[in-house]
């Protein structure tokens, strides 16, 4: 039976992996290389690990917050000098579809950018199939408030809820002079919701930001048709897939970044104008808040609780 507020027992789903190998190919957004990414099944408790097949001995990097490297506009993980950049859309697809154990092979420093969303990754995973494994999935059940904030008025707050599962709300507001109007997206995260409501939402940037990135050598092979670039009058050479697509994509980013905690979350995460750095910080603070309960024991049936 589902837990009641304050009880220590939570029903757990089984860990899951993909049923067979899946592949996505495309151009990397940052470096412009032709990239091939493979999803491969993995044993229980393997977690998500990215493997650089273009490097000698194919080194791997665990997709955990402990391996993140501070970087603007993207989530980067690194282990022993091996780096994978812009992993958030792949992580969102895996977490959104509840794939807990997967070896992700990539032959470049970044995954293929595709259209700036998670839909290509999610479709590949869904078509490969997802299978249950013989170990329970660990869960962090949030109790009380955990907050990460900066001095620019952005914050992420994790709160307790009376129901099972994870709910995420993203409040987007770039100010009255921005071509992107303020709006909010809020969803309880399930595989069905992820596939139907979130996976299609794309990366977006302002025209001035895109120009600055190209001046730094990024995105040399990208055009305005490849992702959503906002000019003063709205998207350039492109159309939004939903009126709140930008907030949905920010919420998608949150899913990918929150997955770096390495287990399921149960609670409500509310993000106001946050980006990848603050998302990673809330994950660190959640792990710190759960430090005495993070590794389950038989008496808690695998549950991880906040003190």
UniProtKB/TrEMBL annotation:
Stated role = Catalyzes the hydrolysis of UDP-3-O-myristoyl-N-acetylglucosamine to form UDP-3-O-myristoylglucosamine and acetate, the committed step in lipid A biosynthesis.
Cofactors, names only? Zn(2+)
* Keywords linked to the UniProt accession: Hydrolase, Lipid A biosynthesis, Lipid biosynthesis, Lipid metabolism, Metal-binding, Zinc
Name of the featured protein: UDP-3-O-acyl-N-acetylglucosamine deacetylase
Q: Which GO terms describe its biological process?
A: lipid A biosynthetic process
EC number(s) on file: 3.5.1.108
- Give the CC-aspect GO terms: membrane
Q: State whether keyword Membrane applies.
A: no
> Which reactions appear under catalytic activity for this entry?
a UDP-3-O-[(3R)-3-hydroxyacyl]-N-acetyl-alpha-D-glucosamine + H2O = a UDP-3-O-[(3R)-3-hydroxyacyl]-alpha-D-glucosamine + acetate
Report the superkingdom from the record: Bacteria
What does the record give under GO molecular function?
metal ion binding; UDP-3-O-acyl-N-acetylglucosamine deacetylase activity
The upper taxonomy is: Bacteria, Pseudomonadati, Planctomycetota, Planctomycetia, Planctomycetales
Task: Specify the pathway.
Answer: Glycolipid biosynthesis; lipid IV(A) biosynthesis; lipid IV(A) from (3R)-3-hydroxytetradecanoyl-[acyl-carrier-protein] and UDP-N-acetyl-alpha-D-glucosamine: step 2/6
């Amino acid at each position: 039976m589902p837990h009641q507020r304050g009880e220590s027992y939570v029903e757990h789903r089984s860990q899951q992996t993909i049923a067979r190998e899946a592949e996505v190919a495309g151009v990397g957004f940052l470096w412009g290389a032709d990239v091939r990414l493979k999803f491969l099944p993995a044993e229980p408790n393997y977690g998500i690990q990215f493997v650089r097949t273009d490097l000698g001995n194919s080194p791997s990097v665990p997709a955990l917050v402990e391996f993140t490297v501070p970087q603007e506009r993207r989530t980067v993980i690194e282990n022993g000098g091996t780096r994978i950049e812009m992993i958030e859309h792949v992580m969102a697809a895996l977490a959104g579809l509840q794939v807990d154990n997967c070896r992700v092979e990539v032959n470049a420093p970044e995954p293929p950018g595709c259209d700036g969303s998670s839909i290509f990754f999610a479709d590949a995973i869904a078509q490969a199939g997802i299978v249950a494994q013989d170990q329970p999935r660990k869960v962090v059940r949030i109790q009380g408030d955990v907050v990460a904030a900066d001095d620019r008025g952005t914050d992420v707050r994790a709160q307790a809820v009376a129901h099972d599962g994870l709910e995420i709300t993203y409040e987007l507001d770039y100010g009255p002079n921005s071509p992107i109007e303020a709006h909010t997206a809020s969803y309880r995260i399930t595989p069905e919701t992820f596939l139907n409501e979130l996976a299609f939402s794309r990366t977006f940037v302002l025209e001035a930001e895109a120009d600055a990135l190209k001046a730094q050598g990024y995105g040399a092979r990208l055009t305005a048709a490849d992702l959503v670039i906002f000019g003063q009058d709205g998207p350039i050479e492109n159309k939004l897939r939903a009126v709140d697509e930008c907030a949905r994509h920010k919420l998608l980013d949150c899913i990918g970044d929150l997955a770096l905690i390495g287990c399921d979350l149960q609670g409500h995460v509310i993000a106001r104008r946050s980006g990848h750095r603050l998302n990673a910080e809330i994950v660190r603070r959640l792990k710190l808040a759960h430090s005495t309960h993070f590794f389950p024991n038989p008496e808690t049936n695998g549950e991880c609780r906040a003190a």
